[in-house]
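seq/struct pair 1
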Amino acid sequence: MPELSSPTTATGVEPHSPRPRFEVADIVRTYGEAFRATHPVSPEQARVLRAIGQCRTAALGGHVEACETCGVECISYNSCRNRHCPKCQGAARAKWLAAEQALLLPVPYFHLVFTLPHQLNPLLRVNQRALYGLVFQAAAQTLQEFAHDPKHLGAELGITAVLHTWGQTLTEHVHVHCIVTGGGLSAQGTQWRPSRRRFLFAVQALSRVFRGKYLAGLSRLQAQRRLRFVGASAVLAEERTWGAFLQQLHRRPWVVYSKPPFGGPAQALKYLSRYTHRVAISNARLVCVGDGVVRFRYKDYAAGATTKVMELRAEEFLRRFLLHVVPPHFVRIRHFGLLANRLRQDKLTRCRQLLAVAAAAAVAALPLRTTEPAAAGPAPTAAALCPACGVGRLRLIELLAPHRGHPP
């Protein structure tokens, strides 16, 4: 029985969209073992490499279906479902979208991005859980501080924030995307206060407050001895060097980016879904893999978002890719303000009442389609049509146990 990384028929016809010519899994399978032998890899990074290498192969098991009309057999291997795998995010994104629709309010939404300066990268690399959590906290507190001020809004916002740690070339570029309600609930809960139509708050002012809050939090963590200083950040353990480092970060401007509001809540959520389950690089961006080299497309925003091709040695590609493996159970999508879990339903219900819109009408219908194959489970969908004849239904005929001897 052939070992295939995506569902395939006996005639070579794939029942899903065509598989990209090259995949991150190919790089892991070909070069991953040599990389692990020569580079330090954390337990979580090792799990990610193993999962991606085994994804949709015999190592994870699967099932066989046969067409009731033409008899063609289709083999589908199971997905790893690791959140860092480029092939396993379609189903997770669709499930997230379905849940988030119930949280939408019938108001405009704004998109803001809070970015950390690259001077922090060596420290971030060895303090991911603490410092990634701090960027969520600083961004949300900054937005709420402006929103609570009567001079700006005098209300509580609803915020959904998503962490990204990469740039287009897989280098470290830590930032959070925030989708924010264009208005908020007054402190007494008696008014919905809309924001200005074209912008939420001035980005220069947001940048200064964000910088202050993040650096204050950083200083607290250092004073509490909750930071590690390892590798390139080891020099910061010395008190004088640490003080100079903080002064340098205080002097430079930090970047906060804001886009015009969306046309409505459904558009905002659909836009955010592009970011929620994205991984450092998609398989579609890979151009060529071979001879120890990986080539991939990227957008050069310094050159007007021109699409270019970068070439890296395979070990450097894997090193950069693994920089973006987040700690186990770290939550990359968080809600704040009106959307915080504790009083979410009560506050959203009150907002809808004030906006004179029934709760059911606030849920916009979004098509939950994805170009990625859904994660394969132990059983196929009963309504699947044969990819060969297009007429017959596929029927489960065999479950395939995981093949433990299959290489990662």
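seq/struct pair 2
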Amino acid sequence: MLNVNNLKVYFFTKKGIGKAVNGISFHLKKEKILAIVGESGCGKSVTALSILNLIEPPGKIVDGEILFKGENILKLDKEKLRNIRGNEISIIFQDPMMSLNPVIKVGDQITETILTHKKITKKEAKELSIELFKKVKLKNAEKIFNSYPHELSGGMRQRVMIAISLSCNPDILIADEPTTALDVTTQKSILELLKELKEKNSLTVLFITHDFRLVEKLADEVIVMYGGKIVEYREKNEILNNPLHPYTIGLINSIPPVDKKIEKLPVIEGEVPDIFNLPEGCPFSPRCKFKKENCEKKFPPKTYLNGNYYFACWEIKI
């Protein structure tokens, strides 16, 4: 559905050049859920925004291509981009209160999206909106249609955002940490809803998260990012059962077990690197217990497994 090739997104500031995304490539397969996992600051959300060419100054896409239906999104004019955004590729942001206009009723916000892309009447747009609210399992859909965002709970607002993102039957749905601000119970229901909608609507999903527990429940394939680079890219079961990169191993080991009590969780020592001062070699090398001299000098080449899957580490051999 989508091919990302050698994408580089840099931020040009007085502090210097921040390499938020630094030469990544991946393929989004039809009707699959691809998760991008990593700590805050690794480049996940910047990657998601780049797909819709939504990077604003001081950020700039300096290299690469994003191919959708044979065209490079990064070279399309404003009119073609406008037609793709929300219509063919849609996005759910992590904080609906930042995305929904607080002084406009949510019903007007979803109908605006529909009327932008579909040639139907306002009455038909309203009827479709209410049906979409029911589809995302919002009770009292007509009442919610006439509500302001602050009158709804966090879970309800997120369901409204999902309804808006699905309003034009997109081919691809980007979900940028859509459950971050929600409690565990609501989080579970949103994940179940996304999975159900993906099956019913034959959606292709790019799911951004920092939580491997969500990956386990939802994803088909997984990309692990660190310091603007992809360090491992594999099928979900393979990566969960046999992680190869030291960073992936650290992330999985730090998941709290649900079936036993432990006194202390394993942690990855150190901090995420500053994108304005990245290590010369592998960005994970300052925190890696396997590092050797080679790791600090040059980013490792990709070691391919089956198909397009790979990991990038000098010291791990298979």
